[in-house]
Amino acid sequence: KLAANLAELLNLNLVPGRLDRAYQKKISEYYATLGWAVNQVTVKPVKQDPKMTVDIDGNPPATPVQLQSMETTVKINVLSPDKSTTKVYTLHLLKEDTGYRPETAKTDLLCGVCSSLYQCPRRLLQCSHSFCTVCLAVSQRTDKKCPTCSAPPPVDPPFDDVDSELREKLLSVEVLCFYCGTGVGSPGLLEHAVECSERLVTCSTCDQDVKHSTLEHSDCTASCKLCGKKYLVEEEEIHSKMCLQGESLPKIELSDYKAGVSDWEKKLRVDTADDFKELYESGEKWEKEYHKIRSTTSDVVEVKKRLESAANAYANAVVANSKSYNAHSRLGIVLEEIHYVEDLMAKLKKKKVPTATLR
Fold first, then answer.
1. 18-52 b/e with 16+ CB inside 10 Å = b?
2. Is 159 helix (H, G, I), strand (E, B) or coil?
3. Other C-beta atoms within 10 Å of 146: how many?
4. 3-class secondary-structure state, position 217
5. What are phi and psi of 357, to 5 degrees?
6. What are φ and ψ of residue 80, in 5° steps?
């Protein structure tokens, strides 16, 4: 009798395709390599107990999974019958990126495992079915039977040999490039694969699929390790100056800013309420506004306005209570931020970029 808190699959199947490694209960992460012609896969988990609840990325198991160009990752969630235990299986679906397909009429040139044009075909002796050398090696790691008809292998080796007839046929066939549609002779496949201008690769920075000839694309984005916001890679220097670690400005020693604070006290002093708490909270409010927009807006002028409003409030708070360490410290740090923004605006002006925008 199975335990009510058991949350394990009995098996895991794919249609079409198969796992690169046979299913084992103790393993929760699997890979499966599929042909370029496969656009969707149905994942069929086999439950140990009918009362278990299984979903695939929140969808029923019978829901087809649409494949991306390179890799598609799905999560298989298993919930025990008593709802107390959950186990997650991770499945990586990889598409074979051969880049070529034969003409429609020549379907006899497709491998039965990867659904792509044969690559160095070998023929099984027990049934004469042929497969790519790599496909056959991967398939027979877990099952020596024929992937097409399940015919058992011979008792003694050899189990397969080179399909010379099929290889000769491949030399004379013309195939169509998967990306640009150009007809290419089979002997020139490798050279065209390297030079094809439409071939897609994945950008290592933003994970977008881009043409390999334009790998350094203008819309490439990266995520800031400090604030988590995304920015254009070409604007990394600008973002680094506008971004500070954490949700609030860091505390630093007041002594570094004594002279600057004294000057700004005179410059920013205005007739306003003398209530220290009200002034200090006003400075905090404007500082929070600055943090809110600093990584989401391109308008440098608006960022500077909020910093100046915060500096104004802190300067008046210093006058109201000159012994407040916090007011002096926050004012000094905000003034330093204003210096960075002014420096940034000066650089943009030299580059003849409008100071009201970063893009």
1. bbeeebeeeeeebebbbbbebeebebebebbbeeb
2. coil
3. 21
4. coil
5. -150, 150
6. -65, 160
Quote the CA–CA distance of 121 and 164 in Å, as a whole number.
8
Could you tell me how far CA 3 lies from the centroid of its own chain? 38
Report whether 249 contacts 287 (CB < 8 A): yes
Residue 110 has phi, psi (to 5 degrees) of -100, 135
- Say if residue 324's pLDDT is above 50: yes
Read off the pLDDT of residues 342-355 as tens digits, 9 standing for 90 and up. 877 777 777 665 54
**74-104 pLDDT, tens digit each:** 999 999 888 888 999 998 887 765 545 555 4
SS3 label, residue 113: coil
Core vs surface per residue 150-163: b (16+ CB within 10 A) or e: eeebeeeeeebeeb
Query: 178, 36 in Cβ contact below 8 A?
Result: yes
For range 118-128, the mean pLDDT: 85
> pLDDT at residue 143 above 60?
yes
Encode pLDDT of 270-290 as tens digits.
444 457 888 888 888 888 888
Q: The tokens of 231 are what?
A: 């920015």
Kindly give the residue spans of alpha helices, DSSP state H, lying in the chain.
133-139, 164-171, 189-195, 236-242, 258-268, 276-293, 300-320, 325-350
Burial of 305 (0-12, 13-18, 19+ CB in 10 A): middle
- pTM of the complete model beyond 0.85: no
Region of residue 288 (phi > 0: left; psi between -120 and 50: alpha; otherwise: beta): alpha
Helix%, strand%, coil% for the chain, nearest 5: 35, 25, 45
